[in-house]
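Could someone model magnesium ion with this protein?
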Amino acid sequence: KISACIFDLDGVVVDTAKYHYIAWRSLANELGFDFTKEDNERLKGVSRMTSLDILLEIGNVELDEKTKLQLAEKKNKNYLEYILKMTPDEILPGVKDFFKVLKSEGIKIALGSASKNAMTILKQLQLTDYFDAIVDGTHVSKAKPDPEVFLKGAELLGFSPAECIVFEDAEAGVEAALNGKMRCVGIGSPEVLGKANLVVPGFVGLTMAQLDF
Ligand code: G6P
Ligand code: MG
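Reply:
Sure, complex below.
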């Protein structure tokens, strides 16, 4: 039985990866190296500071903690300029209809995101009111694949992990769900998300019957 659905944000509800890419690449260029689309793939589902560490590793740059915090802050300011221009048009296809189906079935909706910008993004997309619980990067101390973010969501809703299904586009996120003893739907390609109970390319046409696993 499903009582709640917990959604990752970036890559599941909205494609923010393209804005992360622009902002990280501009930082890399300032530091004197390039950062490719393929490099950007490695940052999906990864926290802001870990993303910076991966970027610096690619550029073979070593910096002290204080400088790293300043650079992460700078990247985020740049990223926010794009985020603040987002509109509900950028909600990924089928997401809103799926939320409406869940509401009509009495299934609760929670957010389980690593992003510290999640509230801003939901506001831009005018989706905040769909969520019965919101857990984001400002509420957790352990990154996915640790299940903390999803367990907190379930707890806020008052359900056990077995009553929840997680929707994730990143491998670490699928692992986090399974580590939390939750079922998981992968949004994306089976090659990357093969551990999930079900993998679909997106929400268009997704039915409740498919979630019966
Ligand atoms: C999501 C994205 C990552 C991003 C992380 C932190 O997990 O997939 O690419 O690094 O959130 O985002 P933030 O908005 O806090 O910098
Ligand atoms: Mg994601």
